[in-house]
Description:
323 residues, 13 strands, disordered N terminus, alpha+beta, 22% helix
Amino acid sequence: MQKHTPTLVKFGFLFLVAFTTLNAQDATIEATGDDISESLDLEAVASLFGEAENLEEFEQKLNDPDAPLSNLDLNEDGYVDYLRVVETMEDDTHVIALQAVLDEDVYQDVATIEVEQDSQGTTHMQVVGNAYVYGTGYIVEPIFARRPVIFSWLWRPVYRPYRSVYYWGYYPKHFRVWKPFQLARYKKNVLVHVNVKHTYRRVSVRYSTTAVRLHTKVQRNDYAVRYPQRAHSVRVTTIRKTNANGTTKKVATVRKTNSPTKRVVTKETNSRRKGVVVNNNPNGTRTVKAASVKKTTVKKSGTTTKVKKTKITKKKVVKKKKK
Length: 323
């Protein structure tokens, strides 16, 4: 019996290595990079809402050119979009939609603020990013250090839902257009709008089912219908696989389609891991670079097995076909 123990241990070890190798291929690959969804910080929106006395003041500060909180330019006309505020309510649930004014009678939901009071008198609030802009499940849940004044305003004895009177070509006197900042600068500047005394949690499930239903009454997705190819699901390519232990995560960057360089998501096979970079050259050609690591198994005498890694780099120029 003792004679066969090393053989059993060896077999068990090889099985464990094989099992681990197979599961290691189920990595999570997520596309990241500069995206329009980063041009409106929902934590800053939540913080501003908590400091406003009413929705009229909230809309004014949301579009303040002297203290820009938004950097959104969805219609790509070179100017930050005006965000109007439209509300609907039912019993103890309020839904406040933030809609970008993009053209004559063309609006696009950017986010909704959903406020609901439960039977115990506790108020719950979530800022839900619109799926067209932020992707699905992008929700910020603020926990305020003190009860916001606007909560009391929403639950006045006599209350009428707020609806912005502004539209394309008609804006408040204080408003003037401004050009978007570079994203890095915007991210730095917007921090002044985030009250650090509050806590902001990222969740993926909406608290109120009533709010989901109410939202349909004021929802506007005109731009999403007109330009479905600009949706978050199309702009940002995401490949998701589940790792057995949940600890492996791989990130790949995919830039905008009009960028001169596009980095393609990393691919993994059983024997080779490859990354591809495509450069669009001014002369109409494309340079394709492929760097890969080939794994070669080298068997040694005894019980040890070594894996040799060899780096391979390939480069080729591809001419574009004339249309």
